[in-house]
Amino acid sequence: xxxxxxxxxxxxxxxxxxxxxxxxxxxxxxxxxxxxxxxxxxxxxxxxxxxxxxxxxxxxxxxxxxxxxxxxxxxxxxxxxxxxxxxxxxxxxxxxxxxxxxxxxxxxxxxxxxxxxxxxxxxxxxxxxxxxxxxxxxxxxxxxxxxxxxxxxxxxxxxxxxxxxxxxxxxxxxxxxxxxxxxxxxxxxxxxxxxxxxxxxxxxxxxxxxxxxxxxxxxxxxxxxxxxxxxxxxxxxxxxxxxxxxxxxxxxxxxxxxxxxxxxxxxxxxxxxxxxxxxxxxxxxxxxxxxxxxxxxxx
Length: 299
Description:
Elements: E1 4-7, H1 17-36, E2 45-48, H2 76-91, H3 113-127, H4 138-153, H5 155-168, E3 175-179, H6 181-192, E4 200-204, H7 211-214, E5 234-239, E6 264-267, H8 277-282, H9 284-298
Parallel strand pairs: 1-2, 1-3, 3-4, 4-5, 5-6
């Protein structure tokens, strides 16, 4: 059974566990081999797949509904969109500032549907110019907002997502790697299952520190600090400073320390594919953290 289990992020409903394992598993094996000399076999790496939980039962193809600015909900979805816009404007000269005349909207409190839709249209138009979100369509951006909100708010969704992770954990599993929303799934699954044999958590491109998500974590943070994830000994967080999803890229101050200390935050550069899971996996700093977890377990 797999020694390393990967947990993907949003917008993977068109993929599957075997397809992702072929591509991402190869990235892990290459990264670990080049960074540490440790050789992993294909059977050593598996992908926990939960993208299918976002496909509506009556949709065979998983096609996206024709979402637009009228479908973004006030609350979590609008707050997350606002956070992305603010960060994109800081990083990309092509994106207009959020508080530029005519762009700032009434986010965070109840507003009329018309006013919210007007603000969302401006946000989507702004983000469509950001290099980070290319080539995502506005329809896809709305879909990603909804997947995050549904995971955090709808019990059947988070239960199925965590169950997908549990199905891949075996007595041999020592390292859990979570990307994007998958880092939230991995973290919460570990908190829920402290008896798992996983000793190393690696989060990449993680939104765990984003306030709109952090304050909704399970278990809930206490006195501004999140719980340590179950029986994990070491937790390494890797972020590209240009990764808008991981805009709070230092998790150490936000979570309680574990047996070997707090979260070890590392920064890397993924080039123009700042949030790409494959780029994160082949990065030496990520690969070294994975290899260390495996070598520590076997030593």
